[in-house]
Amino acid sequence: MSWRTVVISRRAKLDLCLNYLEVRGEEVKKVHLSEIGTLIIESTAVSLTAALLCELVNRKVKVIFCDAKRNPLSELLPYYGSFDTSAKVRQQLTWDKDTKALIWGEIVTEKIRQQQALLAHLGQTERADLLLGYAREVAPQDATNREGHAAKVYFGGLFGLDFSRAEENTVNAALNYGYSILLSAFNREIVAQGYLTQLGIFHDNMFNQFNLGSDFMEPFRPLVDRIVYEALPFEFEREMRLKLVGVLDEKVRIDNQSQYVANAIRIYTRSLLDALNQKSAEEIKFFQTDLLGPPAELLLRAREQSLTPLPF
């Protein structure tokens, strides 16, 4: 199973060599393609061969390209992620309005529940209780916008009453970077299952190529929020970016098993697709975290060197 996140942060030439990713810079390093789940190209001074890109697509490795400021800019997606993609797309087009409204309500409820759990863990009882009330009030399609009300309380508790997600600052830069990593992981799983990322169940922005991934990822956002909160104060530089990339290597519980977040995303995404196809919210498998112990317990690494920033 692919599990390694490889980050290329300096000038390098990337090539395919006998099923290995070969990185040539000041020295040559190799990583077997079977180990790679995500490849992040942080530097614009990196060059890649077409042969490598084709093999990465064939192996369903998520490839993320960053801009000159090292922020995620785009990703590599195959045209077809499954042998029966045509059938899956036809099925996706038949998802009815009521089912999508029901599933979106469940997603929003779980997102608020995860936010509430984090605030409660941080000792913000009053705000946590308020969010718990919002979670109980979520209607299908979140018609009363409990998500928006909860966000105001939640981010105010984490980063102060004056904090706004619309501002340009290091906190928002870090949050956006972490969310981009999660979104890319969700897009990978959606495409691998043969569905279109453009067609969401709630998000429907004509300029957003990843509406469905944006829908599915919502309950996972607090994992990024917690990393950013625990790192305060910080400079949004390489060390912080590597912490955020490491969100995929944290451990959670899902389907009665301990899993890395990358695997939990796969299980959860498949369960959501089953729920939409079978018109039943009972199919959804949400993850759980242990927020009763010290914060450091959540930040476990999957394996020694599971996050492999190569020095280039």
Summarize the structure in words.
This protein has helices spanning 50-58, 85-93, 97-121, 125-136, 146-159, 170-192, 211-216, 221-231, 238-245, 261-278; strands at 4-8, 12-17, 20-24, 28-32, 36-41, 46-48, 62-66, 72-76, 251-254, 257-260, 287-288, 307-310. Strands 8-7-5-1-12 form a 5-stranded mixed beta sheet, with helices on one face. With 312 residues, the protein is α/β, with parallel strands linked by helices. Strand 2 (12-17) and strand 3 (20-24) form a beta hairpin. The model is unreliable at 292-312 (pLDDT under 50). Helix 3 packs antiparallel against helix 4 (125-136) and helix 4 (125-136) packs antiparallel against helix 5 (146-159). The chain has 2 domains: 4-76, Ribosomal Protein L15, Chain: K, domain 2; 85-310, CRISPR-associated endonuclease Cas1, C-terminal domain (Four Helix Bundle (Hemerythrin (Met), subunit A), Up-down Bundle).
In short:
This protein has 312 residues and is of the alpha/beta class.
| CATH-assigned fold name of the largest domain | Four Helix Bundle (Hemerythrin (Met), subunit A)
The biggest beta sheet is recorded as:
5 strands, mixed
Q: Give the radius of gyration.
A: 19 Å
What fraction strand? Answer: 15-25%
The number of helical segments is 10
- The helix/strand series, from N terminus to C terminus, equals EEEEEEHEEHHHHHHHHEEHEE
Strand order of the largest sheet: 8-7-5-1-12
Question: What oligomeric state best describes the polypeptide chains here?
Answer: single chain
Distance between the termini: 26 Å
Please report the first level of CATH classification, the CATH class of the largest domain: Mainly Alpha
CATH level-four homologous superfamily name of the largest domain: CRISPR-associated endonuclease Cas1, C-terminal domain
Architecture of the largest domain, CATH level 2?
A: Up-down Bundle
Mean pLDDT: 90
Number of beta strands? 12
The SS-based structural class is: alpha/beta
- The shape, in one word, is globular
Number of domains: 2
Task: Point out poorly predicted stretches.
Answer: 292-312
| Helical content band | 40-55%
